[in-house]
Design goal:
mainly alpha, single chain, 11 helices, 76% helix, 278 residues
């Protein structure tokens, strides 16, 4: 539903962009070929497949699979909480960036703060069962998104075009393959029994909200601030989620939550204030 919802908006948008690019390039003397894929993605197949594999299929499959094994609280801590660290490591590898002492301190504070916020919940992974599988899947999803963030920066991809490329790749690879596996009974799904209202809501919220709006906005941040500084902002998610539970669900305000938020905020200040190694 995430990919279908995004496709409804972004596939026509991609077709229009490719068509406009072709007209502009054909008007030049001599005409210039426009790289595109299937007339829908503004990027050629190689780049579309690359961003689609890590930022689309890889991230979504790993993240959503993790919910079968671990609680949602683990996802809110592990995916956004570890994203700054994984992005920094990937950036050091692919972009040859240098880790400054201020940024290292900021990442350390962020990591410790998120552990304080979700540490008690994460300890469930040692109680037996399959919780640890979900945690590993969440960490893998975070790494996938880190690679996408760095790829966007390295190749100077446009936010809208990159998000369209992801959607085109998932629409022509994952969606039809999933449908065929479902028809032949290879996989099981509750799509046949799920209420239509729920499916439409997920398509709109996950597809339009998470992919179109959030995806384009976050990729735009990467263009301006770089992958590491942009992903540092996501470290606030665990603390803000916990604070939301305090105000809206009446959960107790613990000292670990307050201290965790202080550490995360301080870490972000240390990390984003430096302009070195964007």
């Amino acid at each position: 539903m995430r990919f279908i919802g995004a496709s409804v908006v972004l596939l026509p948008w991609g077709w229009w962009i490719v068509r406009s690019q072709r007209r502009a390039k054909m008007a030049l003397v001599p005409p210039v070929a426009t790289p595109s894929w299937l007339g829908l993605s503004p990027y050629a197949f190689k780049m579309s497949a690359l961003v689609g594999a890590v930022g689309g299929v890889g991230y979504a499959m790993l993240a959503y699979s993790g919910f079968f094994f671990a609680p949602a609280a683990h996802a809110s801590v592990l995916m956004p909480g570890t994203l700054p660290l994984s992005t920094a490591l990937v950036a050091m590898w692919l972009l040859q960036t240098r880790m400054t002492s201020a940024r290292a301190l900021g990442l350390g504070l962020i990591f410790c703060g998120d552990l304080l916020v979700g540490g008690a919940s994460l300890l469930q992974a040692f109680d037996g069962g399959e919780t640890w599988k979900g945690d590993l899947l969440f960490l893998s999803a975070s790494t996938c998104w880190a690679f996408y963030s760095v790829i966007v920066r390295k190749n100077e991809l446009d936010a809208v075009k990159a998000t369209i490329a992801i959607t085109v790749f998932t629409a022509v690879t994952y969606v039809p393959v999933y449908a065929l596996l479902l028809v032949f009974g290879v996989i099981k799904s509750h799509l046949g029994t799920a209420p239509w209202g729920e499916m439409v809501f997920q398509a709109v919220y996950q597809g339009v909200g998470s992919v179109v709006i959030s995806g384009i906005s976050f990729t735009k941040m990467i263009q301006h601030f770089g992958p590491v500084r942009s992903t540092m902002m996501t470290a606030l998610v665990p603390g803000l989620s916990a604070m939301g539970a305090v105000f809206f669900l009446g959960e107790p305000l613990s000292w670990t939550l307050v201290l965790g938020l202080v550490l995360v905020t301080t870490g972000i200040v240390f990390g984003v204030r430096t302009v070195v190694n964007k």
